Amino acid sequence: MLKRLVQGAVYLGLLASSVLGFGYTTSGNSIVVTTDGGLTFTVDKTSGDITSMVFNGIETQDSSKRSQIASGIGATCTPTQTGNSNNYVKITCVAGSLTQYYVAKYKDPAIHMATYITAEPSVGELRFISRLKKSAVSSGYAVSEIAGGTAIEGSDVFKVGSATRSKFYSSKQFIDDQVHGASGNGVGVYMVIPGNGYEASSGGPFFRDINNQGGEIDLYSVIVIQNSGHTQTESNRMGLHGPYALWFTSGSAPSTFGESLIDLNTSFWEGLSVTGLVPQSQRGRVTGKASGIASSFSNYQTIGFSNSAAQYWVRTDSSGAFTSPYMKPGTYTMTLYKVELAVASQSVTVSAGGTATSNIASTESNPSSIWQIGDFDGTPRGFLNADKIETMHPSDSRMSSWGPATFTVGNSVSSFPMALFKAVGAVKINFSLTSSQIGARTLQIATTLAFAGGRPSVVVNNWNGPAPAAPSQPDSRGVTRGTWRGNNIMYTVSIPSGTLVAGSNSITINVISGSSGDMYLSPNFVFDALRLY
């Protein structure tokens, strides 16, 4: 009997400790949430803004600004303690067609979040920004640290000393961006986008956008962007964006949640009455095998799925086998990518609780070429400055000269410019042909992105090629903001017989456009690869 009383007392003590250490209180306009995982955060119930985030006694929230969707949504918030054994606090913040959810899970040092929209919000970019105290969280991304800098392009690209920096240079492609953040002495704050966290975002697996910006004021932004006009290639999606989480550590980035990082368990959301959430039991999957891609690219195959409601992706194994994430029911366009180049697409239907089998084979044409410059893979990788463009401006002193350039076929492609700018000049390609290689030929120029209507115009020896139509590309700066990802477009030029000669030949490629601009803001385009056949 005494043993049972002691056990009961211990149980009640643990229960009391749990209750006392987890939950929420209200004071004026503040909802104060304690996770019992070292984190206490405060939400303004009249705006939906986070006004305080204290982890292990360290205040990480910048006192001059707030953490919020966009620049604030003016929401009205309601808290509730709910879920299994009341181990969850859910704060629902409503502002017109937008609902922001903040969730605390017992013992998690995290603010779990999701964002639901039924119409395009008036806040502009739909993004959550955590604005952090630089004195507490001082180490972010060096490439986006703009303190002491001078703006050189718009208000978002800066020169700091001899280096160029921008918040855009902190970006990573969605497919590789599950965790990003900043840290300081005894504290780290990281945005975690697990599993299907990007399903209602736009742009596909290779889209990238701002992760972090450091400034002269006490501010670090750890951002998840859900709808953006930054080189966005498809329409915005409505519905539930996320779940995602702002995770706090003693400094280093969180590396594992259960089996793996992207498997952060979000199933608890299914019991929290969240609008727009589709539980796993009502989802389906696609399994299959990709084929037809050269063995040299076998480790760089990705399967994408998209429709107006959702997007998903999965990398295949080296044999081409894949199984998709759990997807919302519906009919999707299924795309096979060789690196970042779409080489096949087909339709597939996903049903709740089902697994569809859908094999896919590349339909890419691979003509026998006289010469080829670069790989047709949807990227400029390997070309001059391609290894730098994601983290610095084209004007950066660390860049190699952009041109005008001359390239001789057979030389290393690392001397061929990844992009052409109308105000910088052309690239001239020199090559030799035998008598059996002349006659009517075809030149193909593959591009990944263009700005201000830039597209290639060619002069082959003394013959002027036709001017192509303006490309369909995002109306946005791209290559100056750290990305080459737009719409992959192939330009095909039919070279008439009598143009090419046995011996020395040249092809000069210029940028044409009805627009103009200074230097790197002049019309431009990014090369994928070129071939003559």
> Structural class, from secondary structure content?
mainly beta
The share of residues in extended strands comes to 35-45%
What would you call the shape? globular
CATH arch. level architecture of the largest domain: Distorted Sandwich
Strand adjacency order, main sheet:
7-8-9-10-21-17-16
Return the CATH topology of the largest domain: Beta-galactosidase, Chain A, domain 5
Q: Major sheet, described briefly?
A: 7 strands, antiparallel
Could you name the CATH class of the largest domain? Mainly Beta
Distance between the termini: 91 Å
How helix-rich are the residues, as a percent range?
A: under 10%
Protein name: rhamnogalacturonan endolyase
EC number: 4.2.2.23
GO biological process, one term: cell wall organization
Enzyme class: lyase
Describe the structure.
The protein is mainly β and 533 residues long. It has 3 domains: 28-271, Beta-galactosidase, Chain A, domain 5; 280-361, Carboxypeptidase-like, regulatory domain (Immunoglobulin-like, Sandwich), CATH 2.60.40; 371-532, Jelly Rolls (Sandwich), CATH 2.60.120. Helices cover 4% and strands 41% of the residues. The chain contains 1 helix and 39 strands. It has one helix at residues 2-21; strands spanning 23-27, 30-34, 39-44, 50-55, 58-59, 68-69, 76-82, 88-95, 98-105, 110-117, 126-132, 150-153, 157-160, 163-166, 172-173, 179-184, 187-192, 208-209, 212-214, 220-227, 239-249, 285-291, 301-306, 311-315, 321-323, 330-338, 341-350, 355-357, 360-361, 371-373, 405-408, 419-421, 427-433, 441-451, 455-460, 463-464, 489-495, 503-512, 524-532. A hairpin with a 2-residue loop joins strand 13 (157-160) and strand 14. It starts with a helix and ends with a strand. Mean pLDDT is 92; it is low at 1-19 and 258-262.
